[in-house]
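Risk register update: the risk of archive-format incompatibility is retired. Evidence:
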Amino acid sequence: MSLQTAFVFTAGLLLIALPSIFAEKDLTNDLIPGLIFTFGISLVVILVYGLPVSLLAEFISSRMPNNRAWVSGMIHVGFGLLTSLISLSFGLVAAICAILFFLHDEFARGNDSIFNKIKALFGKRLG
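Archived output:
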């Protein structure tokens, strides 16, 4: 799962950088090595920072069985947003990755109820 999150993070940064990449008249050979470097660094950060946060979220949320998914989600997003102290844009991308990591974890658990609650929440607001 960490590998997938690192890939999503790298792809997200690439999407953010696309306008400036295509604004360059000359696409240099730095793009592929830069993506590989970003992927490698993000994988290390996810393993060193994200995995312990996920374990902490699991430990804390398991003590609240009625609200386990929501507590876990808030911890994931909170620690993702905490990286905004480094850089605002980095923190927003990290928070999005934290949300995706959380949703992937819930889906892997077979917890469809969280998706039904999200659909109901957005259904009420959109409808």
